[in-house]
Amino acid sequence: MHTNRTTFLHVDMDAFFASVEQHDHPELRGKPVVVGAPPDQRGVVAAASYEARKFGIHSAMPSRTAHQKCPEAIFVPGNMARYKEVSRQIMRIFESYTPLVQPLSIDEAFLDVTGAQRLFGDAKTIAEKIRREIRETTGLTASVGVAPNLFLAKLASDMDKPDGLTIVPFEQQAIEAFLAPLPIGRVWGIGEVTQKKLLSLGITTIGKLQQCDFERLERAVGPRAAEVFSRLARGIDPRGITLESVDKSISNETTFKEDATDRAQIEATYKRLIDKVGARVRRAGVFATTVHLKLRWSDFSTITRQTRLPLPCCDDITLREAGMDLLNEHLRNRPVRLIGFGVSGLTETDDPQTLQLNLFEALDTALHEKRSRLSRVADQIKHRFGERSLRRGSDLDGHR
C-alpha cells in the first residue's frame, strides 16, 4: 500500500454497549444481552449483543418486541458513565497514532493515517496495531475499514463484523469493481424511500447504479441527489477529517409553571420551541443536520434523544416532522417538568456532501428547497407584521 496516498481508517466498536457489559460481567458472555429498558416497561433497545442479534433484535426496537423475539434475552439497564470511560480509552489509542481523529459517536471514529504511515507502517499494519491495543486495553473487539476516502472506509468497516479488517482497493477501476456487487442500500443517503424508486428502475446493485444513465437517475431522485449518488457509486468522496472539538448547536427549552400532563399542552409548547429554533437557525444563515429532544420528568430525571436529518435543513416543516417523531417516540404518560428542542451539526451549506455517512434517507431535494423558501417567506412576514400575523394551518401541523 503506497504511504504517500491519502488513507483513512474507520474504526467501529463491535456491539459496544453490550460488549462492555459482557466484558465487565463474565456471566453474560456468550448469552443474548440487550442493553435498554426491561420488556415490562415502555422503552427501546439501546444495543444488542451478537448473540441477541441472531434473533433479529436491533437497536431502537421496542424492548417488548425484543423479548418476544428472544424470551431468554438478558436485559441490562446500561451504564453510560462506564461506556464513556471505555470510549475515552479507545480515543486515546487513536490519538497515539494520529492527531487527525474525527469521532462520529461514542464508539466509532475516522482517522486520517496518511502521515502516520511513515512512523508506524502501512495502513493495514496501523489498523492491526489499533485493534490489538483496543483488545489489550479494554478486552473488546473493533472492526476497521481501510480506504482512500471516508465513505469507503465507513462502508468497509461494516463488511466483516465482528472483529474484522477490510481493505478497499486504491485504484479507481478496482474501487468500482469492489463496489459493484453490493446492494444499493449500502450507498450513504439511499434509504427505504429512495431504494424503492431505484428498484423500480431495476437498479439493485451499486454496479447498476454506476451504469445508470444520469438523466434517468436525475428524473427519479432529483438533480442534487443524482449527482451525489452517482459520485458515491464510483467511490468518489472528496471530504477530509473535520476537527471540531465542540459541536455548534442552537436550542430552546422551557420549564412548565406546573408539571404538565396534558399532551396537547406539551405538544403546543414543543412546537413553539421548534419554530423559535428554526427562526434562529435561519437568522444565523446555517443548516442543521441533527435535532434533539430534551424531557425532564416531575422527579427531575432527564432524557435527551437525537436523530439525524436526511439533508441539512433550516425549514420549520422538516424540523417539526423530526421533532414530533422524537416526541411521539419518547413522551411517556407521566408529568413533564421541562421540555426542550435543539439542533446541532450546523453547516453553512445544505449540500448532502456535508453530511456524515450514517444518514439513512435522501429527501426529495425539490421539496426540501420549497420548504426552505416557504419558511424564509414566513420569517419576512412575521418580521414585518409581528409574530402573531401568521397562524399555522393544519397543512403544516399535518407534516409530522
Keywords:
12 strands, 400 residues, Alpha-Beta Plaits, disordered C terminus, 5-stranded mixed beta sheet, single chain, Dna Ligase, domain 1, 42% helix, alpha+beta, DNA polymerase, domain 1
Protein described:
- It contains 16 helices and twelve strands.
- It is of the alpha+beta class and 400 residues long.
- It folds into three domains: 1-170, 2-Layer Sandwich (Alpha-Beta Plaits); 173-233, 5' to 3' exonuclease, C-terminal subdomain (DNA polymerase, domain 1), CATH 1.10.150.20; 249-397, Dna Ligase, domain 1.
- The strands form three sheets. A five-stranded mixed beta sheet has the order 5-6-1-7-8. Strands 9-12-10-11 form a four-stranded antiparallel beta sheet.
- β5 (101-105) and β6 (108-112) form a beta hairpin.
- α4 (80-95) runs antiparallel to α6.
- The radius of gyration is 23 Å and the shape is globular.
- The termini are far apart.
Strand order of the largest sheet: 5-6-1-7-8
Instruction: Report the mean per-residue pLDDT as an integer.
Output: 86
**Helix/strand structural class:** alpha+beta
Distance from N terminus to C terminus (CA atoms, Å) equals 49 Å
- Estimate nothing, just give the exact number of structural domains: 3
Shape: globular
Gyration radius, rounded: 23 Å
Helix content: 40-55%
CATH architect. name of the largest domain: 2-Layer Sandwich
Content of β-strand: 15-25%
Number of strands: 12
> Any low-confidence stretches, pLDDT <50, length ≥5?
352-364, 393-400
Sketch the topology as an H/E string, one letter per element.
EHEEHHEHEEHHEHEHHHHHEHEEHEHH
Oligomer: single chain
User: If helices are DSSP runs of H or I spanning 4 or more residues, what is the number of helices?
Assistant: 16
